[in-house]
Amino acid sequence: MLKFLKIYCFLIFFLFATPLFAARQSIRVTVPKTAYIQWLSHSEASMTAVGETSTFVELSGDEMAPNQELYLGIMCNSLDGYEIRLISAHPVDTNTAEARDSNGSVLHYTADLEKVTHTFRGQSMSSLSLDLTGSQPSIRLSFYSGGALPLEPFAPNVFRLTVTANTNTRKRGIYTDRITAILNLP
Fold first, then answer.
1. SS3 sequence, the chain?
2. Could you read off the pLDDT of 36-93 as tens digits, one per residue?
3. Are 76 and 149 in contact (CB under 8 A)?
4. Are 84 and 150 in contact (CB under 8 A)?
5. Measured by CB atoms within 10 angstroms of the end CB, which terminus of the chain is less buried, N or C?
């Protein structure tokens, strides 16, 4: 009987004491703002180089055809969005630059920037103002909801940069230029 009473007292104490002495555990995790960019082969391509915040594409040789489309993919986890500066190695003005050959001959080209619409989910607010000099961001984008964030490498936001070369003044040679994309988080 004494053994039963001890067990009974212990159970009563345990039932009443547990809520009084229960440890509350909360976990707090801070996830930093992160975004990555990569030049893609086409608008449907997946990103493979996760971790880049600056990338470049070389325009040269046969790639300096009269019209060429370049694709830039972006992943981002912040509703504040991102800004991207596009900088030519030889800018002339905001949407014109030069490609040069080894003899110093120059081939002028113009560029146009646009969103590849089907790669954007949900609502976002964007500002596109191409500036190949890099003095201001060419892309500014923010998101209204978490569902619009491009979080997966197989579903990034994609922008198309169409490069049009002035082939009327083209001399024989291999012309090159480099366009660098630099990512910034506001």
1. CHHHHHHHHHHHHHHHHHHHHCCCCCCCCCCCCCEEEEEECCCCCCCCCCCCCEEEEEEEHHHHCCEEEEEEEEEECCCCCEEEEEEECCECCCCEEEEECCCCCEEEEEEEEEECHHHCCCCEEEEECCCCCCCCCCEEEEECCHHHCCCCCCCCEEEEEEEEECHHHCCCCCCEEEEEEEEECC
2. 999 999 999 999 867 788 887 777 655 456 688 999 999 999 999 999 999 999 999 9
3. yes
4. no
5. N
Handedness of CA 106, 93, 142, 33 (dihedral sign): positive
Domain 35-184 carries which CATH code? 2.60.40
Which residue in the block uniquely carries the two structure tokens 């050959």?
Answer: 101
**Angle formed at CA 95 by CA 41 and CA 124, multiple of 5 degrees:** 65
pLDDT at 16 over 60: no
| SS (HEC) of 93-104 | CCCEEEEECCCC
CA 89 to chain centre: 21
Q: Output 23 or 54, whichever has higher pLDDT.
A: 54
Q: Residue 175: which pLDDT band, with cuts at 50, 70 and 90?
A: confident
- pTM, two decimal places: 0.80
| Domain ranges within the chain, ordered by starting residue | 35-184
